[in-house]
Amino acid sequence: MSEDRASLQSLITTFESIPDFRVDRHKKYSLGEILFLTLSAVVSGCSDWDEIADFGREKLAWLRRFYEYKNGTPSHDTINRVVSLLDPRTFEEHFIGWATKGLELPEGTIVNVDGKKLRGSATKKEQQTPHAQGGKSAVHLVQAWCNELQLCLGQYQTKEKSNEITAIPALLELLDLRGCIVTIDAMGCQKAIAEQLLGQQADYVFGLKNNQLKLKEAVSSLFEQAGTINDKELKLEALPEHIAEQSDQGHGRLEKRICRVLPAKLLGEELRAEWPGLESIVEITACRLVLATNQFSMEKRYYISSLKAGAADFNRVVRSHWAIENNLHWSLDVQFKEDQSLKRANHAAAN
Asked: Coiled-coil stretches, from where to where (predicted)?
């Protein structure tokens, strides 16, 4: 059996292990038949129920190599109804288990965690209306992306962006992150998440903004004073090279990112002790020049990390966080038309 065939057989076994919520006597198609058809159609470029149903009719002979489909393939209404009513938590856990089975991420693999709003999963009017008056929130997903493998390692649904703080730990718990470097934006800059990642034998790099104001002010103040800090103090623990630059030109602009790193011990024991495993604080000054207009902009961003690394490494790791936006989210929006999708019933958008 070829590797691809074995992988497909493993997927079929996974689908068959998902509990079917339907009454047996009313079923013309097994849950596995519906899910296998849906997944096959989506990875082939289908983006709505009608297209998935059309794919099934056109590819019935191929589909029957894996399932019986004794009643042919289901209609778009049947596919819609079943996928919409399938519990997303159960589906996530089974599918992530299949996708990551046997997957061993090499030491130092960077995993980016970020949230994405499915804009079409609720109308603007529904989102602006209070829930007590019939309003509805758009579906929000927290996802983990490995750019090195071009693989989404998993996702977890939450109803609001503010709920990412609880969704991120639930997603991380599903993943084997031993030896990985996990990047999360400022929303996930939480002491409990830092502790969880260390417990999972991973390192963290967190964006730092005003939601952790005390720490941010202390970090920014240290970098303002960095020129006056005694060099011997910086190198007490053989600190790696603590400043690095990275430049790029493309899309009509010049960009330079200047990264500076300081040891977290400079924060003082009391503040540092509040953050599990904190080793480094990072400042990145991002400069941009738009060539057509000669418009210049500069922004300073701050990060904290359990890594003890040099500025060049932090520049690379921090920049890699944009991979989840540029590669995963862009593909979902442009190729799979996720934001344009009007799947709003029950759990359709999440699944």
From this structure: none
